[in-house]
Specification:
By secondary structure, this protein is mainly alpha-helical. It is built from 14 helices and no strands. The chain has one domain.
């Protein structure tokens, strides 16, 4: 689906009081950034932020344990192919979306969203979003409020897409008895299901009632964004299960279902760095999830994490240096 919105970027600004306060704060920061000291401060801050990301990645790499991984590396080449595909899936989708609204070359956008993915996963949640906000503002001179409103709309539709896709995932896993639901809730109390149904209904009603307040983009564009994100999450779910299956095809599907549910829940936790390591820790702590193939599954998961960390370190360092050089060489 190819998103189109004309004019390229003129969302209607809502929630004016919040935006006025945001604009006032941003104006103060902009005035400070225009001073000689401010320019040196923000340059140093960017270098410091890049250094923190690199330091965290190196530290996590050293904590994984290379010797253990090397003796249990997955043998299927498809395992490594799916790692590469899943690594670039989010940046590709975000590049496509933002490329329809902002006149920025797609290759540069892809570079930005790879770094955003790395910062959000290995530094702290939403740090990558702040980076994107200021990167677009600095490169295009668009007011922060407009960029912020678009990012809010895109973020809400992404969350809705994730929520819907997760609901579909859990529904399929429960109906096919492929998820060990008791590992999460113990006894299947009917009130739990009733509570979930009431919560979903209430959130749906509130979202529909205040849709014009929540979104600044046209309704058709919002629906298109939602469908793109919904498809992205379903694609990632399918790729994840395929990645595990090609390595250990004899493991029961209910194990994959439970592991995918744990990863999906952990990925939605805000402001939590290294969510993949957290998910592995939870899997190891859930009784019965990896009884029969614990060593092989653990090695497979840690191999994926290690490869992701190597890719993060390499891409973040290379792309940051490249982008800084291009920005320095561009005319003011």
């Amino acid at each position: 689906m190819y998103l189109y919105y004309h004019p390229p970027f003129r969302p209607k600004i809502t929630n004016l009081e919040v935006l006025r306060r945001l604009k006032s704060i941003k104006a103060s920061i902009s005035r400070f950034g225009a001073t000689p000291f401010g320019k040196r401060f923000f340059t140093g801050f960017r270098v410091l932020l890049a250094g923190i990301v690199i330091f965290v990645l190196i530290k996590q790499l050293s904590n994984i344990g290379w010797q253990s991984l090397l003796t249990n590396l997955p043998g299927s080449p498809w395992f490594y192919v799916t790692i590469a595909i899943m690594y670039v899936t989010l940046p590709i989708f975000e590049t496509s979306i933002y490329g329809h609204f902002f006149p920025i070359p797609r290759l540069r956008l892809f570079s930005v969203f790879v770094r955003k993915k790395i910062m959000n996963s290995d530094l702290i949640g939403y740090s990558g979003d702040v980076f994107v906000l200021y990167w677009i503002k600095e490169r295009l001179g668009i007011p922060e409020g407009k960029v912020f409103r678009f990012m809010v709309d895109n973020g809400i539709t992404s969350s809705l897409g994730a929520f819907s896709a997760t609901g579909v995932l859990f529904g399929i896993l429960i109906l096919t008895d492929s998820i060990r639901w008791g590992d999460f809730l113990g006894d299947n109390d009917p009130m739990v299901y009733l509570g979930v149904a009431v919560l979903v209904g209430a959130l749906s009603f509130v979202g529909y009632k205040f849709r014009h307040t929540l979104f600044s983009l046209p309704g058709k564009t919002v629906v298109q964004l939602y469908l793109v994100h919904f498809f992205r999450f379903l694609l990632v779910f399918c790729l994840q299960i395929f990645q595990w299956w090609v390595v250990l095809p004899l493991v029961p599907f209910d194990v994959w279902g439970t592991m995918l549910a744990i990863i999906t829940i952990s990925n939605r936790l805000p402001f939590v760095p290294a969510k993949d390591l957290l998910a592995v820790a939870v899997m190891l702590g859930v009784a019965g999830v990896m009884e029969d193939s614990r060593a092989a599954i653990t090695a497979m998961l840690l191999t994926r994490i290690a490869i992701d960390r190597v890719l993060n370190l390499g891409f973040f360092t290379t792309l940051s240096l490249s982008d800084r050089k291009k920005h320095a060489d561009s005319p003011s």
